[in-house]
Amino acid sequence: MKIIELETNPGKYSCKCYLILGSWNAITDVNTVVDVGTDAYFLNDMEKINTGVGKKAIQQVVLTHCHFDHSGGLKKVKDRYQPKVLAYNKIEGVDEMLVGGETLKMGDGFFDVIHFPGHSQDSLCFYCQAERTLFAGDTQLVIRSPGGSFLESYLHAFLKLVALPIEKIYFGHDKPLFGEEKEIRKILIDTLSIIRKSQIVKKTDERDILP
């Protein structure tokens, strides 16, 4: 698997965008972009990337959530490549809604979809066990100090996450976090401890976008 951090517009606030390719650009690989940013600025350079022969440079788009800095460029991407778009919320341009529990092929790997309400009600994480890799979007996984409140469903998702072998975490805005499995697990367990000491709020899952 190859993961490429795509260029974003330095003049606009935007999330990080990632392109997932197979190791050998095989015809069966599914070229996938995780989040498209505010304006899909990366489209300017897509033709410079070797994405394989006989298929679209972008076949699939997955959104970690639908806030504008992650989804604003969706129309531009669809107009150029007509990819299949998957997200938790059915905003304009989304072809298939995810609820969590699905498995998606991205590049040459298979990713489990994890519904992780917290930053927004529609937040998703994407986890590949074979690569020990997680795309977290804006989900808070590293918290240094107590305070605030967290959804009960967020706590339940976090409890499942700490049991997974993870060595690479790609965030929506922060630098990726790389380390040995035990190092990453300690960071997550420390965060879980802070969450448990905070206020836990019960809320039914609704398909809305929180501010």
Biggest sheet, open or closed, and with what strands and sense?
A: 6 strands, mixed
Order of helices and strands: EEEEHHEEEEEEEHEEHE
Instruction: Identify the CATH homologous superfamily.
Output: Ribonuclease Z/Hydroxyacylglutathione hydrolase-like
Q: Write the CATH architecture name.
A: 4-Layer Sandwich
Determine the strand fraction and express it as a percent band: 25-35%
Write the layout of secondary structure elements.
Elements lengths: L1 E5 L10 E5 L10 E3 L25 E3 L5 H4 L2 H8 L2 E4 L8 E2 L5 E4 L2 E7 L8 E5 L4 E5 L11 E3 H10 L6 E4 L5 E2 L2 H16 L2 E3 L10
Parallel strand pairs: 3-4, 4-5, 5-6, 10-12, 11-14
Antiparallel strand pairs: 1-2, 2-3, 7-8, 8-9, 9-10, 12-13
Helix pairs in contact: 3-4
List keywords for this structure.
globular, 4 helices, 6-stranded mixed sheet, alpha/beta, 211 residues, Metallo-beta-lactamase, Chain A, disordered C terminus
Describe this structure as you would to a colleague.
The chain is of the alpha/beta class. The chain has one domain: Ribonuclease Z/Hydroxyacylglutathione hydrolase-like (Metallo-beta-lactamase, Chain A, 4-Layer Sandwich).
